[in-house]
Structure formats: structure tokens, C-alpha cells
Amino acid sequence: MADPRLTAPPALRPLYEVPAVAADLYEEVADCPACILAKTRTHTVPGSGPMPADLMLIGEGPGQREDELGLPFVGRSGQFLDELLGTIGRSRQDVYVTNVVKCRPPGNRDPEPAEIAACRGYLDRQITMVRPRVIATLGRFSMARWFPGERISSIHGRALRAGSTWVVPMYHPAAALRTGSLREVMKQDFQQIPALLASAPADEAPRP
Ligand code: URA
Ligand code: SF4
């Protein structure tokens, strides 16, 4: 398989930088056979950004462009996400971004519970390494980890404290691209992030 780093648009190249602490994890993901998504992926998409990072975003799973490039959120959803981050003065290079499954579900179908479970250990380890002050979940699959049984339409934008990390559920950017009115809702929800970052304690207590 050709190395996508060689053909990726230059602006994306910094996102391939592997945090030293995650080198083993990224290698394990690259060879992971643990669920059926391994059979159809082009590239694994472990995540992007620095470790540690104060802000972590967790989406659903790679789409077509992500599978081609091996980077999260680099298609249309990613463009909107970049715009949202810009409104709070942040950029992709200073935020850790990943998904609940690291391989593309074929045809962009929803990830299956068994796939999310098989991939969960990687996400757990990433959270431990990132040590975020704020986690924003993007869409219902990452939301379900902290808010089981809740509806995103009821709880989006409402932060929950998990240990010393704030977890704030957000709509998925793809939903906002489908339903224009959600774009403004997402922008408003994002505006809470700076205050949450500022209010989180600077202690070293265990995070989720
Ligand atoms: N949608 C996601 O949930 N994750 C991506 O990485 C891209 C699109
Ligand atoms: Fe492994 Fe996760 Fe990819 Fe499944 S989705 S093969 S568990 S890395």
C-alpha cells in the first residue's frame, strides 16, 4: 500500500506526526486484525494531534477520504470541524482528534457494537495519553460511552464532569452539513469549550 504521507496535501502533512508516547499504539493499530473492518480498510486512522493535549475530539469512524489518507476528519466533515475550531482560536495541530473505530466502516455505515468494543482499548489508551481537560464527543457513538441511553438532541452542549475532565456532547459535523440549522447549534456548543478549558483544575487526578 502506498504511503499516503507522500501524496497527502502539504497542509495536512503535520497531522501525520506521531506523538512519541503513542508510537507503539499507532503500530499496533496499523496491523490490528481485531474486527471485521480490518478486511476492508485501505489505511488505519489512529488519530492526529499532540499528546498531551488540553482538548480531545472523538468522532465516529473514518470516511472515504480518511481511509485514503490515514488521517481523521479530512473530508467535508473535517472542513467544517476546522471552521468550528477556528471560531475558538484553535487549530487541528493543537487538538487531539480520533474516532471510536480506527478503520472505515464500508459505505460509511454505522459502526457495530462489536467493532466499537474491539477498538475500545485503543481509545482508552489514547485518552490516558492525551490527558485532556475537555473531551468533545462528535455524534452519538462517542457520546454513548459517557451518556448511555441519552439523546443528542436533548443533551448536546451540556458538559458533564468525568473525574477531572469535562465531557461535552456535540452533534456530528456531518449532521450539521445535512441539516443546515445544526451548523449554528454546533457553533454555539463549541463556544463553551474555552470556558470549560479554563475551569478545569490543573491537578493530576485520574481522568476517564
Ligand atoms: N466522520 C467521523 O466520524 N470521523 C472522521 O474521521 C471523519 C468523518
Ligand atoms: Fe482493529 Fe479498531 Fe480497526 Fe477493528 S476498527 S480492525 S478493532 S483498529
Task: Return the domain count.
Answer: 1
* Helix content bin: 25-40%
| Count of beta strands | 5
- Structural Rg: 16 Å
Written account of the structure:
This protein is α/β, with parallel strands linked by helices and 208 residues long. The protein has helices spanning 23-30, 64-69, 76-87, 113-130, 140-146, 152-155, 173-178, 181-190, 193-199, and strands at 55-59, 96-99, 134-138, 160-162, 165-170. Uracil binds at residues 59-63, 66, 72-73, 75, 77, 99, 174.
Keyword list:
alpha/beta; 9 helices; Uracil-DNA Glycosylase, subunit E; single chain; 5-stranded mixed beta sheet; 38% helix; 208 residues; binds uracil
Quick overview:
The chain has helices at 23-30, 64-69, 76-87, 113-130, 140-146, 152-155, 173-178, 181-190, 193-199, and strands at residues 55-59, 96-99, 134-138, 160-162, 165-170.
Give the helices and strands, then pairings.
Layout: H1 23-30, E1 55-59, H2 64-69, H3 76-87, E2 96-99, H4 113-130, E3 134-138, H5 140-146, H6 152-155, E4 160-162, E5 165-170, H7 173-178, H8 181-190, H9 193-199
